[in-house]
Amino acid sequence: MGTEVAVSDKDLELALSESAFTKIYHFRLHSFAAGECTLIVPFQKSLERPGGIIAGTVFMTAADVAMWLAIMTRLGRDNHSVTTEMTTAFLSSARKENVHCRAKVLKLGKNLIYGVAECRGNAGKLLTHHTMTYARRET
Question: Is 56 helix (H, G, I), strand (E, B) or coil?
Fold first, then answer.
């Protein structure tokens, strides 16, 4: 995989701030490199499900958004790739803690993009593992 990054931190932060579907989560950009992105999902009481654990949809959305940004690091901010498949393994639960989600592009194909993501708790405990496929689209 090449080492060139097609966007800046400002580009990625702008993508997060301008997208209505990300606003309820308050995602924060932690780090990025070519084909990779790590987000922090700050704990919010509103993201808990009954029983006090963080809802599974939070992890799935974090993985999807982290991969969206990871793809931007390779293809630029004007990229319009969309999720076509996601498989999620819920490995452990999280309570009242921030979640760190790291996504990595495994293969950037002509039509499809393959990647993985992992969400971890504050202490580094693996919470979820995701495999994803995106379709490359023209605008």
Answer: helix
